[in-house]
Amino acid sequence: MTVSQDKNKAPFIVVSGPSGSGKTTICRAVAKKLSLYYSISHTTRPKREKEIHGQDYFFTSQDIFKEMIQNKAFIEWAQVYENYYGTSKEIVDTKRAQGIGVIVDVDTQGALIIKKNMPDALLIFIKTPQASELRKRLLARGQDSKEEIEKRLQETKKELLMAKKYDHAVVNDDLNKAIETVMTIIKSYDNRKPITENRT
Ligand code: ADP
Ligand code: 5GP
């Protein structure tokens, strides 16, 4: 089943959460099951070994990223863990104009910019049952250095405090259940109306 897709107002879903909470895994699964486009961000972060340019991210130099900021090419952008990340306006607008819903995985700064500028966007925050689970998952993922993992974990408390600003928070304990919960939330949201409930 796919979510309702009005040509002019295809759904726009924003997912955030601490590093290691499972955002990427959940977004990929949900995008596939609900025929949403999982937006590929631009970043100045160095590519991880298993990542592919144009599939995981558009890996971009600082100069090009800054030029894109000047050209207003991003819906939102932010500096996260010393690198820049941004969501391309062109990609999101094109997909939505084609009636294709878009799901983005952005940090809490980016999510709040979207919340302010796009009142119909649905914001979902992903958590783990205990914060200690994050370290375990990041180590198991085996893609970041110990220092990089510690840098990410240091941001966790601040990020968790932002969860209340989201429309929904989902605990990713059992992965399949979390995917189901996110899908249920998305299917029950009416993307043609601005979201006002619980919004401050
Ligand atoms: P994020 O995008 O939030 O940094 P990932 O989706 O990359 O997180 O997930 C981090 C790691 O945890 C990955 O190796 C992923 O396979 C694993 N993972 C995701 N969800 C769960 C879960 N519910 N239980 C155990 N491991 C999980
Ligand atoms: P990672 O380097 O682990 O892929 O992502 C680090 C952080 O950057 C995560 O919190 C992720 O949500 C965030 N991120 C990824 N893409 C974007 C983006 O386009 N904009 C913003 N603001 N954050 C992003």
Can you walk me through this structure?
The structure is a single chain. This protein is an alpha/beta fold. The chain has a single domain (12-187), classed as P-loop containing nucleotide triphosphate hydrolases (Rossmann fold). The protein has helices at 23-34, 62-70, 89-97, 108-117, 132-141, 146-154, 156-161, 175-187, and strands spanning 12-16, 37-38, 42-43, 58-59, 74-80, 83-88, 102-105, 122-127, 168-171. The strands form 2 sheets. The protein has a 5-stranded parallel beta sheet, sandwiched between helices. A 4-stranded mixed beta sheet has the order 4-3-6-5. Helix 5 (132-141) packs antiparallel against helix 6. The two termini are 32 Å apart. The model is unreliable at 1-7 (pLDDT under 50). Adenosine-5'-diphosphate (ADP) binds next to helix 1 and helix 5.
Features of the shown structure:
single chain, alpha/beta, Rossmann fold, five-stranded parallel β-sheet, four-stranded mixed β-sheet, 39% helix, disordered N terminus
Given the helix and strand composition, which structural class is it? alpha/beta
Give the integer mean of the pLDDT values: 92
Q: Strands of the largest sheet, in order across it?
A: 2-7-1-8-9
Order of helices and strands: EHEEEHEEHEHEHHHEH
Assembly status: single chain
Q: Classify the fold: give the CATH topology.
A: Rossmann fold
Give me the CATH superfamily: P-loop containing nucleotide triphosphate hydrolases
In the CATH hierarchy, what is the class?
A: Alpha Beta
Number of strands: 9
Q: Shape, please?
A: globular
For the record, give the distance between the C-alpha atoms at the N and C termini, rounded to a whole number.
32 Å
How much helix, percentage-wise, in residues? 25-40%
CATH architecture: 3-Layer(aba) Sandwich
The hetero compounds bound to this protein are: adenosine-5'-diphosphate, guanosine-5'-monophosphate
Overall tally of structural domains: 1
Strand content: 15-25%
What are the low-pLDDT stretches, counting only 5+ consecutive residues below 50? 1-7
- Structure annotation, total helices: 8
